[in-house]
């Protein structure tokens, strides 16, 4: 599962280019104008190891990097299951940056056709060169969009594909929680209300992110205070998983995935032991984790007025994965205007300093 992250993730992931890769020195893109309800034309192109892609049929488009990334092998096992189990869906793997000979070897290993990185049609049509999955109906309407950074997101996506395969698009829509395209109105969570007339900034992190800690150490409190001075009505929400919630399930691995035990049990049951690393298997067999729990990320005090610190239950209603299918936490940044319209940052916050936080939020709110 190619996941591109930051901080300790930054060197390994961001432009090792996730979230399941970008090509070379290109700008990273994640279909800012493509949310649920948008219409896209599925290209018809040749694939390595299989038949050409078709338009006019329900399609799952998986943008991925099949080699040299975290949990790459999981993509093959996941997509292999989908190809077997969901015959009414066209499954299209679009490689983001791996060399063609490696793609051909991967295709043969898993028995899966792949659109190679040298074919740009899908990246252009979906304005995407990062790991992402789009579920599109036969008319080209995007019905769901996921950047799957955590295994819980893959499981939720699998359930969506079950619904789509049997033609139950109403159920797909009812279970779509993806953020809208930029400019679309988003739903809030129980503790993060949206659309009440005041803008909102949501920063998402966790205790595993050393880059996030550096951001705090470099003066994030002052940056938030500066934003409050510029936007007195701005509500700021600092989200991170509670330690109690983390400690009650699995946490660890090179991707810093975490969640209730049943998430990892279901993932292995669906996609096989080959799709997880040894840390997960050890936990499922013994209940033991090999890493220590982190300390909390966000300081408890010293923030400007209008700041809410929210330590949520993993998998609960305030979990950004549950609320918005948003898994980036290094630092995740969501900005909404007073009407609840999603302003960005898409694909994710690319700065590295508190001043960059200020500049990014100001730019989004001023546009």
Q: How many separate structural domains?
A: 3
Task: Name the CATH superfamily classification of the largest domain.
Answer: Glutaredoxin
Count the helices. How many?
13
* Total strand segments: 12
Uncertain ranges: 1-25
- CATH class group of the largest domain: Alpha Beta
For the biggest sheet, the summary is: 5 strands, mixed
CATH topology of the largest domain: Glutaredoxin
Q: Give the CA-CA distance, first to last residue.
A: 35 Å
How would you describe what is shown here?
With 367 residues, this protein is of the alpha/beta class. It folds into three domains: 167 residues, 3-Layer(aba) Sandwich (Glutaredoxin), CATH 3.40.30; 119 residues, 3-Layer(aba) Sandwich (Glutaredoxin), CATH 3.40.30.10; 35 residues, no CATH class. It contains 13 helices and twelve strands. α5 packs across α10 and α8 packs parallel to α13.
Q: Can you describe this structure in just a few lines?
A:
The protein is α/β, with parallel strands linked by helices.
SSE layout:
Blueprint: H1 8-14, E1 59-64, H2 72-85, E2 90-95, H3 100-110, E3 114-115, H4 121-126, E4 132-136, E5 142-146, H5 151-165, H6 169-174, E6 200-204, H7 210-217, H8 220-230, E7 235-241, H9 243-247, E8 250-252, E9 257-259, H10 261-271, H11 278-286, E10 307-312, H12 320-324, E11 332-336, E12 342-344, H13 354-366
Parallel strand pairs: 1-2, 2-3, 6-7, 7-10
Antiparallel strand pairs: 1-4, 4-5, 6-11, 8-9, 11-12
Helix pairs in contact: 5-10, 8-13
Question: What keyword list fits this structure?
Answer:
Glutaredoxin; 3 domains; five-stranded mixed beta sheet; globular; 367 residues; alpha/beta; disordered N terminus
């Amino acid at each position: 599962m190619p996941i591109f992250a930051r901080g300790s993730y930054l060197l390994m992931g961001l432009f090792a280019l996730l979230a399941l890769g970008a090509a070379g020195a290109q700008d990273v893109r994640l279909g800012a104008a493509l949310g649920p309800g948008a219409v896209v034309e599925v290209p018809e192109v040749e694939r390595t190891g299989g038949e050409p892609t078709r338009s006019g049929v329900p399609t799952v488009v998986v943008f991925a990097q099949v080699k040299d990334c975290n949990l790459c092998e999981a993509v093959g096992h996941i997509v292999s299951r989908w190809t077997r189990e969901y015959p009414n869906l066209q499954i299209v793997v679009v490689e983001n940056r791996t060399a063609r000979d490696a793609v051909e070897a991967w295709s043969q290993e898993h028995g899966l056709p792949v659109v190679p990185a040298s074919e740009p049609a899908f990246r252009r049509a979906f304005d995407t060169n990062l790991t992402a999955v789009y579920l599109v109906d036969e008319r080209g309407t995007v019905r769901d969009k996921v950047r799957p950074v955590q295994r819980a997101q893959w499981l939720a996506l699998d359930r969506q594909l079950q619904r789509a395969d049997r033609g139950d698009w109403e159920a797909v829509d009812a279970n779509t929680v993806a953020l809208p395209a930029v400019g679309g109105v988003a739903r809030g969570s129980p503790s993060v209300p949206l659309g009440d007339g005041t803008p909102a900034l949501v920063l998402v992190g966790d205790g595993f992110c050393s880059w996030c800690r550096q951001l705090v150490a470099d003066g994030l409190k002052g940056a938030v205070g500066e934003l409050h001075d510029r936007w007195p009505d701005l509500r700021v929400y600092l989200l991170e998983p509670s330690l109690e919630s983390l400690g009650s399930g699995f946490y660890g691995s090179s991707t810093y995935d975490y969640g209730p035990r049943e998430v990892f049990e279901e993932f292995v049951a669906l996609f096989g032991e080959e799709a997880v690393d040894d840390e997960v298997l050890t936990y499922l067999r013994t209940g033991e984790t090999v890493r220590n729990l982190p300390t909390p990320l966000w300081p408890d005090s010293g923030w400007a007025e209008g700041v809410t610190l929210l330590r949520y239950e993993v998998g609960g209603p305030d979990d950004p994965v549950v609320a918005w299918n948003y898994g980036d936490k290094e630092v995740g940044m969501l900005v909404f205007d007073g009407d609840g319209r999603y302003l960005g940052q898409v694909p994710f916050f690319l700065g590295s300093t508190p001043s960059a936080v200020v500049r990014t939020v100001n730019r989004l709110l001023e546009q």
